[in-house]
Amino acid sequence: MTASSPASTPAASRPAALAGIKVLDLSRVLAGPWATQLLADLGADVVKVERPVAGDDTRHWGPPFLKDAAGNDTREASYFTACNRNKRSITVDMAHPEGQALLRRMAAEADVVVENFKVGGLQQYGLDYDSLKALNPRLIYCSITGFGQDGPYAERAGYDLMVQAMCGLMSITGHADHEPGGGPLKVGVAVIDVFTGLYASNAIIAALHARDNAGHGSGEGQYIDMALLDVGMAVLANQAAGYLATDKAPGRAGNIHPSLAPYQDFKTRDGNVLLAIGNDGQFARFCAAVGHPGWAQDARFATNTARVQNRSDLLILMTPLMQTRGTQDWITLLEDKAVPCGPINTVAQAFDDPQVRARGIRKELPAAGGLGTVGTVASPMRLSGTPVVYRSAPPSLGQHTTEVLTEMGLDAAQLAQLQAQQVI
């Protein structure tokens, strides 16, 4: 079978990629839940443990709020739905000894635990790695904190915005100080949390492979120490590499790329357009299309390095030119010339884009509690043999408590006792 040929067995009849993997999710807010949603999308059974009555903090981070079938706001914030689909929710008070015992029983049968409490915060409950490893040596235990398990900042609380500032990301995001609106800016999404979730899920899958791969032979789990600050430094990518090569800290340059030109937004006759010219061939085709083929032969602009060095001269020529046509006119002119060019959409326009609609990015999942459906963004992981399955919308608080505890062997009398004690 070639790499491009379809699988011989229909994907729908195969188990999901992580089918059979049990995840105990003790995390809240975004980074941890983002990691566990990825695992859930790939087929893992993720049981999300929430505080009775209150639940995950993000259930209350609104507006905006979800609407019920009649179109009225509920008390459920939409933020929670971004990272909790395909999970089961149970409510357990881990401050109660009986709650701790329940969670230890679950951990003893789990493959993975994910938590984002402060360093050492779960030790008092007997839910730290060492305690649970003694019960389940195969357990993979992932801790997510702001600054990691060691170092001078280990005890500090860490939040996405704080880490965007500390790692230098805000110093390279936004317009330069001398420009209108200049100054450091955060990214419009909590990208450090999201990237931490991505790195954490990769580490967890790698640890599962190491545990279960016959070549390793141990069959033992391991501990994963994820820190938002580590991730923030890692995702500086080429900007960090440039600093390490030169010892010169990069600055803010708005939408201009520090190593490519022209690679930025331009004002058009009726709005803005984005040009992302990444090589000399694309620039030559652009010049020919706009009636200035000589620009590509000009020594100041013939190579990308020359264009970066002479960016101001190039922009003197290009800025008035780009204002002679409308945004869609530029896209139409350049799209068949293999010159990357596109609009600067709002989120609403992005969801309405024909390519986004064709790819089925928006998913509507049936919701519990009379909410009708909940909109969610499709996973970008497109596996041909073991595709993502959208099993369920983000759960209501404690929706699966009875179901999960019954699977553990508790009977109705035991459940009633735990409810009476306010453990669940």
TrEMBL record:
In its UniProt record, a GO molecular function of this protein is: CoA-transferase activity
Q: Which UniProt keywords apply?
A: Transferase
Q: Which top-level group of life is the source organism from? A: Bacteria
Q: Which Gene3D superfamilies match?
A: Crotonobetainyl-coa:carnitine coa-transferase, domain 1, formyl-coa transferase, domain 3
Question: Which PANTHER family does this chain map to?
Answer: SUCCINATE--HYDROXYMETHYLGLUTARATE COA-TRANSFERASE (PTHR48207)
* Name of the protein: CoA transferase
